[in-house]
Specification:
By secondary structure, this protein is α+β, with helices and mostly antiparallel strands. The chain contains 5 helices and 4 strands. The protein is elongated. The model has no long low-confidence stretch (mean pLDDT 91).
């Protein structure tokens, strides 16, 4: 009897479709993202996942957009990550602690500390762990990070649907 298998496949496809809808339309109040809020001079930007992962069918950036979503903040440091203390040599002589200087290692620019180009999402399920530093072991960990970071208020079912969608890319 294949009816159970067919039902399972149909439900899996519905979960992917629901996840895609969430990815494309779930409102996210984007705040504190260097490379986005500061570059656009807007403290709050209403967006969706596609605000940053905006290339259709690939989840890449359509323009170069290295961003700092807070992943390298000292507050998120785990024991296996280094901690860099960077001091600006010009007024106001700021100090930043980070687990990774990011793009600043290439450009030498203070504003680029912690900024990274987001990855292409195609084939994402095969590339665990996630984020440039392996911060997230699973796609659910990735979804949980974004849910917490941007206070999205996702339900357990929405998280499962987003994971199903990301696994299908």
């Amino acid at each position: 009897d294949r009816s159970g298998v067919d039902t399972g496949v149909a439900e899996a496809r519905r979960a992917v479709a629901r996840g895609e809808t969430l990815f494309n339309s779930k409102p996210i109040m984007i705040t504190g993202v260097k490379g986005l809020n500061d570059d656009l001079s807007v403290p709050l930007l209403q967006g969706t996942c596609t605000t940053c992962h905006d290339t259709p069918h690939a989840g890449n950036h359509s323009i170069p957009a290295p961003l700092d979503i807070g992943l390298t903040d000292a507050s998120r440091r785990t024991p296996d990550l280094p901690l860099y203390t960077l001091r600006h040599t010009l007024p106001p002589f700021e100090t930043i602690q980070t687990t990774d200087p990011g793009r600043a290692m290439i450009t030498g620019k203070w504003k680029d500390i912690g900024r990274f180009k987001g990855p292409i999402l195609r084939g994402l399920a095969a590339r665990a762990p996630y984020f440039h530093n392996g911060f997230a072991a699973t796609l659910l960990d990735v979804v949980n990070f974004y849910d917490t970071r941007f206070n999205m208020g996702l339900t357990a079912a929405e998280k499962a649907d987003l994971v199903a969608f990301l696994q299908a890319l």
